[in-house]
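On clarity, I found the account of how folds are encoded harder to follow than it need be. For illustration, here is how one protein appears when written out as sequence plus structure tokens.
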Amino acid sequence: MSSAKERAAMVRVDQAGEFGATRIYAGQLAVMGARHPTARAISHMAAQEERHRARLDALLVERRVRPTLLEPFWNVAGFALGAATALIGPEAAMACTAAVETEIDLHYGAQLAQLGDDDPELGGIITEFQAEEVEHRETALAAGAERAPAYPLLSAAIRMGCRAAIRLSERI
């Protein structure tokens, strides 16, 4: 069972996460350029994240949920993370995606468990987006994420940052 307040927090944090994902990919593409072989996969994932963000932007308005006050920070932090990992190399950019999407998969799974049957519309959106996030993680792993320099450390740091961003965006 979830309360209206908990469902509002879900919409707020999910919108913030999808916004952050669009910024990560923007940073990666700014460094790599459109002609880099990895850019095609990144552009495809970025387009899906943009669609997710747009749907959650609309849900914020429909449900009168205030967005996170941290959006200006996520704007800069997301772009910086994307650019920094792309500067390390394409495998590091993919390691970033794999790490982020691992956390988002877990996050969406926990939301679905908490939501139960309380909100079929929101549950359907989360289920759809979760499947695409898992697809992104699999794409990143297939593209060499685990070959990134210091992969275990890089992945752990990014995952920890994601968990912190989730907790903060739920509340602030």
Notes: Residues 66 and 140 are 32 Å apart (CA to CA). The chain has six helices and no strands. The helical segments are 4-32, 39-62, 71-88, 90-115, 120-142, 151-171.
